[in-house]
Amino acid sequence: MSKPVLVSGIQPTGKLHIGNFLGALKNFVTLQNLDEYDCFFFIADLHSLTENFDPKEKHDQIVNVAADYLAAGLNPKKSVIFQQSEVPAHSELAIILNNFASIGEMKRMTQFKDKSKSQAENVNMGLFDYPVLMAADVFLYDAAVVPIGEDQTQHLELARTLVRKFNAKFGETFIEPEPILTEAKRIMSLDDPTKKMSKSRPQGCLFLDDEPDVIRKKIQRAVTDSGNEITYDPERKPALSNLMNIYENMADIRIDEIKKKFQGKGYGDFKKGLAEIIVQALAPFQEKKRKFLANPDIIKKTLAAGNKKASLIADKKIKEVKEKIGLSLD
Asked: Over the stretch 107-135, which tens digit does the pLDDT of each residue have?
């Protein structure tokens, strides 16, 4: 009996930070190692084109995310690791699905509204159409589950709506995917705990490639709240609570244990402890990543093999779709 399929990806739009690591990458590795799913993890390079980009930088970003995947523990023997744009069926299915997504549904997407404000000079159709391409990413592999953060639930619900519309008109073709919500709490910016940690705010970001001394300085400069007691209170102490969330996830210990460990100590001691936890946790990842980047052939071969596996499945699905809607003359 085959296992249910799981699909997810990360955009190559710059260096990944610990929010990406805890919210997605670490979770990918855990899900892969459960051995309960047939896992497909892709580099979402088509999605990444919605932001202004430089071709040379884009190439390097794709290689960098592939290295992140491998260094974090994604294993090509256990998961299919591939590049979205190298599987043309993603684009082709998105074009077909566009005809079943209404303008009204797309305009309701809150992420489109938010990103339109943050990149007002570049509000493009790719940004508007992002959820339909995301649906295509999932449908091509008959994914039963999709690991997402809370900010992607609306997109997945649109995908589920598209499944129902398409299947009602053309017969059972797509599976209605279910979300797997990450257990990691959302990581907020180090300089403003009201904003999500983002590459667009580098001053509040802890990047996975940051050197130990850079990590220590960033944690030392991170904003805190009034008082000096190490206590978890997201409403009254959002900055400290965010740092405690980082500690909890990087050290794999509970918040209560952190409070006990720093009982009677102040913010200075806590920040020093947190910085060392992060440095130690990222050290093995950074060492592995350096080795992969020093051997780019490994990355290329991994993606080439993954692209081939993904294409075999995706091509079969797009052929089925074309037959269902009357485009195939075979």
From this structure: 887 776 667 676 667 776 767 788 999 99
Catalytic annotation present for 261? no
Question: pLDDT tens-digit profile of 238-285?
Answer: 999 999 999 999 999 999 999 999 999 999 999 999 999 999 999 999
User: Which residue among 15, 196, 309, 322 is the active-site one?
Assistant: 196
Contacts 24+ apart (CB under 8 A), 198-205: 198/17, 198/19, 199/13, 199/14, 199/15, 199/17, 200/118, 205/17, 205/19
Structure tokens of 148?
């997402």
Neighbour order of strands in the sheet with 5-10: 79-83, 38-43, 5-10, 143-148, 178-181
Residue 325's identity, in one-letter code, is: I
Q: Note the helical H segments in the chain.
A: 18-20, 26-34, 55-72, 89-97, 103-107, 110-118, 125-139, 153-170, 212-221, 238-251, 255-261, 267-294, 296-325
Q: Of these residues, 58, 78, 199, 288, which one is catalytic?
A: 199
Quick one: which of 151, 138, 6 has its CA closest to 74? 6
Which residues, in sequence order, are bridge partners of residue 80?
A: 40
| 58 is annotated as an active-site residue | no
Catalytic hit among 115, 218, 271, 289: 115
**For the whole model, what pTM was predicted?**
0.92
